[in-house]
Amino acid sequence: MSTKPVFGDSTNFGVFSNQADIGSVAKPGSADFNPATGEYLIAGGGENMWFTNDAFHFVWKEMSGDFTLTADVKFIGAGGNPHRKACLLIRQSLEPGSVYADIAFHAAGLTSLQYRDTSDGLTHEIQSDMSSPARMRLEKRGDYISMWLAAPGEDLKPAGGYLRIPFEGEFYVGLGVCAHNNKAIEQAVFSNVKLTPVSTLANAKPILESTLETIAVASADRRVIYRTRDHIEAPNWSRDGKFFLFNGNGRIYRLPVTGGKAELVDTGTQIKCNNDHGISPDGTQLAISDQTKDGKSRVYVLPIAGGTPRLVTEQAPSYWHGWSPDGKTLAYCAERDGKFGIFTIPVDGGKETRLTTAPGLDDGPEYSPDGKYIYFNSDRTGWMQIWRMKADGSEQEQITSDDYGNWFAHPSPDGKWIVFLSYAKDVVGHPANKDVLIRVMSLSDRKIKVLAKLFGGQGTINVPSWSPDNKNVAFVSYQLVYP
Fold it and tell me: What fold, for 207-481?
């Protein structure tokens, strides 16, 4: 592949230094820079920027270190493929299967942070909740790439998606256009383009932003639903698939699955709710874990729409995690006599039953949809792994055994999968603000695949969060935003 320009004056690309077609294109692309207006007119062909290789026209500059690349983008002409893309991007190389990340603005309005984190690997995306932004910014700080967008008349803001993709040495930063049709050429204009090196001061204090996302189990593609600078955690997906519940600042909030405004759920005098909460099998009740009384968590039940909570566990601390499929029993983690274990109790209250007595920590109990098993995580063998047992506590068996710390197994509604959170082996416990994985295991053959790599941990996926149709999982990711 030639890296020489195929069109225009190679000495005048504004803030960039070169151009070329990347990958296999039937019609050569071109680029033209207007010094008077600062605009870049880029024409690109190519079948796609997706899967394991890309085909598009690229205008770039070789760089190292951290930067922001900002631009306004619009397509020229109507018609064409609605998935044609105009992009701000960073690539490790000029090869079509290069590691890369970009903000891809599609002609139909969809705007996504796309990425390939291994050479010749599959491309994935995080779809923004903003369509047709007026301005876009791609930011690199250290090993993290983020997407910033602005609606017309508004300032740029983080738009979800905060990826750890290390780029080694020098890399390529620039603008790209793909026709999404190898027989066509499409044009886009990039204006108000700024490529700015940035540095992060050692004493800089970032702001933590929370993003509620969903991920498709089949494709591992993600979609941003809700963003906030409040610290939110642990989304539940409603039984009818219409809304999420999550906690933040000690309260429980309800959010439509389409996004929008989060509404406070009335939990009476219980206003110090933590991230252990969930919905009854019939969708009519909500279990919460709250520590308003004396700073120690207890489990309460209230109507799903809100109301006066009813105390279920007298003893504390108790942290809810599971509801039996028949709706009669709650499963929870609790500390008794200085030892943590898994307990169950009738939802109407009464005597609790201890199911595990192993040394160390047993946590995160959740029933299989047939009620036969309870899945949980335990460090009884020296490292946190996923286990399961019969619902009466018998036949306890280890499910995972690898070099990750695995927490909070959530069975899918059809009982075919479990999704769980994984930390690097050097991480103790399940802290916040770490590089983590969301992984999924097929229970038929116990094969595991990675669904998402993200910045998160505590609060990401502590509680049941599958969609009722088994296709998606909800979670919270986090981002460090520097002033």
Answer: Neuraminidase (2.120.10)
